[in-house]
Design a protein that fits this description.
The protein is an alpha/beta fold and 470 residues long. It has helices spanning 34-42, 50-61, 69-85, 115-118, 124-141, 159-176, 193-199, 215-221, 231-241, 261-270, 329-345, 398-408, 422-425, 430-437, 447-469; strands at residues 2-3, 7-12, 17-22, 28-31, 65-66, 89-95, 145-151, 179-185, 204-210, 247-253, 277-284, 366-369, 374-376, 390-391. The strands form three sheets. A nine-stranded mixed sheet has the order 11-10-9-8-7-6-12-13-14. Strands 2-3-4 form a three-stranded antiparallel sheet. A two-stranded antiparallel ribbon has the order 1-5. The model is unreliable at 289-329 (pLDDT under 50). It binds iron/sulfur cluster (2 copies).
């Protein structure tokens, strides 16, 4: 027997307890300090009392003790394989257009210069091809659940394609007894009641909009091309649809804007629709490295939806994959925890920053489709043609096949050694690695972010326990 390499612990001196967690089994314990000391003693052998033997047995059953490192590494490898081959869901993210009606300074897309002139937009003929390809995947996989996400650019700039695909996918799923869940990741400007009225009956279950701080900050960060603000219109749109569909709110922050987020949270809490917000997730703005290392087309993304269950595959861009290539990295990791804390204090659900899990890029049956029908392993790469792994029309091209092989073998976590966060981090966001380091197999490590999130989790577990015992 030996301690698992996925054990983490947080001392809670004010309670004379230690929070212990195993990131692989998700077992969490509040124990007296002699328990971790007992775990350490296991390495050295020796004799145990009957009570200690019972404790060791319980620790073993919860994964804190393992037979051997080799066995544990094999279990980890099996876990990643099962995530990769999981057939419970078909996940397809469709970029209906690369055009955007906003002109955010930090975004490589958007209404800058002539981007919208050349930004691809999916035609109806291409949408027909996408629908046929989806039909093929549904027949091949026969999953219980099909998750369809509309993304861009700004996906609602191509409403005919959104409506067409939603209707077609609804019919395809209904004919096969498959549950369809549709989500939209939108800047919110065109998110009218009419759009939501039409999509809810087809399976719309989530909308994610972005607010980059309080009104003044958001209007500076996310203006239209003429620098007009967009905050009021987005909030008014959300007010009109909040009782029809769960709302997720995201926001991108940097050192200059993070301090405005508490005011945004105050504002959100005051809204009559505050309780319709199912999740609030803020993330640092990804800083790409200077050209030529930085590819032009990668897109930071945070997934829409209500819940990350343990190891549920949240998009790690919301775990802190930003700033890795710049000096402010750890400062932003700290700020991320500060914002999670503020979000919780305002009564909004948010990620705990620990339970992230391997993201979409590690799943074989998660696809992203660009406006021209090219297929990608992850939405973050979907504007980068050199990373395409196929095409909905089934064409065979050597470069796409080579790219597919590259993504199939992707395992940045292999260089992470015995880091205790591997099961929940998987080596971090490959898009951040590619854009910041030029190599998707080199992790952009945000271990400090996991460590500070773990401390918060420990305190939350302890105070929840105190509340239930009083
Ligand atoms: S690689 Fe990064 S952008 Fe892509 S799904 Fe994973 S966390 Fe999200
Ligand atoms: S990227 Fe960092 S935190 Fe994530 S598994 Fe690797 S070493 Fe651990």
């Amino acid at each position: 027997m030996q301690p698992s390499m996925f054990n983490v612990q947080v001392p809670l001196p004010d309670r004379n307890e230690v929070f212990m967690m195993n990131t692989f089994t998700d077992a969490q314990l509040l124990v007296s300090p002699d328990v971790p000391a007992l775990v350490d003693r296991v390495c050295h052998g020796g004799s145990y009392t009957d009570e200690e033997r019972d404790t060791l047995q319980a620790l073993s059953e919860n994964g804190f003790l393992v037979n051997s490192r080799a066995e544990e590494r094999q279990a980890l490898s099996n876990f990643f394989r099962s995530v990769r081959e999981d057939r419970e869901q078909l996940r397809v993210t469709v970029l209906t257009t690369l055009q955007c009606n906003f002109a955010c300074d930090y975004c490589i897309q958007g209404d800058h210069d002539d981007h919208n002139l050349f930004g691809n937009k999916m035609s109806m003929a291409q949408a027909e091809q996408v629908a046929s390809w989806i039909e093929g995947r549904l027949d091949e996989l026969a999953p219980p659940v099909f998750v369809l996400t509309f993304f861009g650019g700004e996906p609602l700039l191509n409403l005919p394609v959104v409506y067409f695909l939603a209707e077609r996918c609804h019919a395809l799923a209904a004919a096969r007894g498959i549950t369809l869940r549709i989500s939209i990741i939108t800047n919110g400007l065109l998110l009218t009641k009419e759009v939501v009225d039409r999509l809810v009956p087809l399976g719309l279950t989530g909308v994610k909009i972005t607010l980059d701080g309080d009104k003044e900050t958001h209007d500076r960060m996310r203006p239209l091309r003429g620098r007009q603000g967009t905050f009021d219109r987005i909030v008014e749109n959300v007010r009109k649809i909040a009782d029809q569909v769960p709302i997720t709110i995201g926001g991108n922050f940097d050192e200059t804007t993070v301090d405005s987020y508490p005011a945004l949270l105050d504002f959100l809490r005051e809204q009559a629709w505050a309780d319709q917000v199912v999740r609030v997730n803020f993330k640092p703005i990804i800083r790409t490295a200077p050209a030529p290392r930085a590819p032009k087309g990668v897109i930071p993304l945070a997934l829409v939806g209500a819940g990350d269950k343990p190891l549920g595959g949240a998009c790690m861009t919301s775990a802190g994959a930003g700033g890795g290539g710049c000096d402010s990295c750890h400062q932003l990791d700290d700020k991320l925890e500060f914002l999670r804390d503020e979000t919780r204090k305002h009564g909004f659900p948010t990620s705990d920053g620990v339970h992230m899990g391997p993201c979409e890029i590690h799943r074989r049956h998660a696809w992203s489709v660009s406006p021209d029908g090219s297929l990608f392993a992850c939405p973050g790469f979907a504007a980068e043609p050199t990373q395409a792994i196929g095409h909905v029309d089934g064409r065979h091209e050597a470069r796409r096949a080579a790219s597919a092989e590259r993504f199939d073998a992707l395992a940045a976590y292999r260089v992470c050694g015995d880091c205790a966060f591997v099961p929940v981090c998987a080596g971090g966001c490959s898009v951040a690695s590619y854009s910041e380091l030029g190599d998707m197999n080199t992790p952009t490590c945000h271990k400090t972010s996991f460590e500070s999130a773990l401390i918060s989790l420990a305190r939350t577990v302890a105070s929840n326990q105190a509340a239930t015992t009083h």
